[in-house]
Amino acid sequence: MKEGPNLAAVAALLGDPARANMLTALMDGRALTATELAHEAGVTLQTTSGHLARLEAARLLRVEKQGRHRYFRLSGEDVAEVLEGLMGLAARTGHLRAKPGPKDPALRQARICYDHLAGDMGVWAFDRLRAKGIVAGHDRHVHVTQEGRAFFARLDIDVEALAHERRPLCRVCLDWSERRYHIAGAIGSQFLRKLFEKGWARREKDSRIVHFTPNGRQDFSKLLA
Amino acid sequence: MKEGPNLAAVAALLGDPARANMLTALMDGRALTATELAHEAGVTLQTTSGHLARLEAARLLRVEKQGRHRYFRLSGEDVAEVLEGLMGLAARTGHLRAKPGPKDPALRQARICYDHLAGDMGVWAFDRLRAKGIVAGHDRHVHVTQEGRAFFARLDIDVEALAHERRPLCRVCLDWSERRYHIAGAIGSQFLRKLFEKGWARREKDSRIVHFTPNGRQDFSKLLA
DNA sequence: ATCATGCTTCGGTTACTACCGAACTATGAA
DNA sequence: TTCATAGTTCGGTAGTAACCGAAGCATGAT
């Protein structure tokens, strides 16, 4: 009783449908304006403004001013992880959406989680990266191996440069649909970007869903074979 | 927008202070009666009854009837994990309790998480178990090694028998205070039980806090040296 | 300067829900 | 049977907060 951090305060913030929709919209790692988020949540701009102020005060969101726009994004990967965790619990406890939506299977297949690949494809890719010895390690402390650096270099990803950024190079992130891990961090971000650059996959407009082209899927499989 | 499981519905359940207090009280894995939970949450029995009905309907709690008592417990380890995750976010985002409470340091040191050891000591123990080759593996898929079976056998823990239970033998669980993993599952549960049996540690009454005796701490260190 | 756009603040309404008192059901003990 | 304990259901109250319209800034374009 009354021990530890104030769980209820944070959960209550996530518990409002409008705020939850805004946060979900930000799960793909993009930064969105207040107007865009208002549209996502289906409420007016002034209501949105109030919600965003509260989320920012709680440090769940980070804001960047650019001209007369204010861009909001999740304050960190850990926020995205908790959101995914809650989705997992919602799915497991049968608390699905009233109207499940036809997009759900596609969402389970492949989606953006913050800025990296999640879903069935994301988990599969992570498994392959490990099986091929490109990454190794325990728990959250996964690292890119020497062979891994060569592998990423062939994709024009400079691991050395990424390693010097403030952001963790290589992390794992729990998947709500698979309940297993996929790769995150700077490497996860760059890896996904390459998929788009190569034209192997594209993102559905205004959605977290990622679509692979038939050829892209094949080339991706070959890359990680 | 409106993709994936209904995150807000679950979060709203966790967002009420009374319900959050009840769930927190159940984090130590015990099963408590409605009356006990009413006391924990600081509300009357009839209010509690309503909350518990909702939590059970959402499959966050499981109930067992025994005579005229109804014992409530968390429906699974995953619920405890999400609660710990939310606590981590609350701590990280500065959303601490209004009155931090003098017990917080003790809680960070060693506490019960569902039915296994968490906090600084829990994370340390898990590190040692891995360093000694008692457990090995990646991610959530950790396993007890051959040497590990011998190690646990010396503690009168029959890994073979536990492995045949429905419950996962060896899992990991994320720690809100350390933001690192500790050991859970049937092994984690038995391991903690041994600490109590040996008198190395005892649990504080009506709390998740675990106190190690001076000798117990020494013997525990020696065991995992 | 004037206008348009993006966002915030203020005020009032509405809807929700946590809460408790009181009455009721169910199980067990004497 | 009678009483006590554990818990649920019902009804009414009260506090909260989500919501929008309107007005008010602030920045950028013309």
State the main characteristics:
two-stranded antiparallel sheet, DNA-binding, 2 domains, 11 helices, alpha+beta, globular, homodimer, 225 residues, Arc Repressor Mutant, subunit A, 3-stranded antiparallel beta sheet
What does this 3D model show about the protein?
- The structure is a homodimer of 225-residue chains.
- By secondary structure, chain A is of the alpha+beta class.
- Chain A folds into two domains: 7-75, Winged helix-like DNA-binding domain superfamily/Winged helix DNA-binding domain (Arc Repressor Mutant, subunit A, Orthogonal Bundle); 80-223, no CATH class.
- The first copy, chain A, contains eleven helices and eleven strands.
- The first copy, chain A, has helices spanning 7-14, 17-26, 34-41, 45-57, 77-92, 104-109, 120-131, 146-154, 159-163, 185-197, 214-223; strands at residues 32-33, 61-66, 69-74, 111-113, 116-118, 135-138, 141-144, 171-174, 181-184, 201-203, 210-212.
- In chain A, the strands form five sheets. Chain A has a three-stranded antiparallel sheet. A two-stranded antiparallel sheet of chain A has the order 4-5. A two-stranded antiparallel ribbon of chain A has the order 6-7.
- In chain A, a hairpin with a 2-residue loop joins strand 2 (61-66) and strand 3.
- In chain A, helix 2 (17-26) packs across helix 3 and helix 3 (34-41) crosses helix 4 (45-57).
- The radius of gyration of chain A is 18 Å and the shape is globular.
- Chain A starts with 6 loop residues before the first helix and ends with a helix.
- The model of chain A has no long low-confidence stretch (mean pLDDT 84).
- At the A-B interface, helix 1, helix 2 and helix 5 of A face helix 1, helix 2 and helix 5 of B.
- The structure holds a DNA duplex (30 and 30 nucleotides).
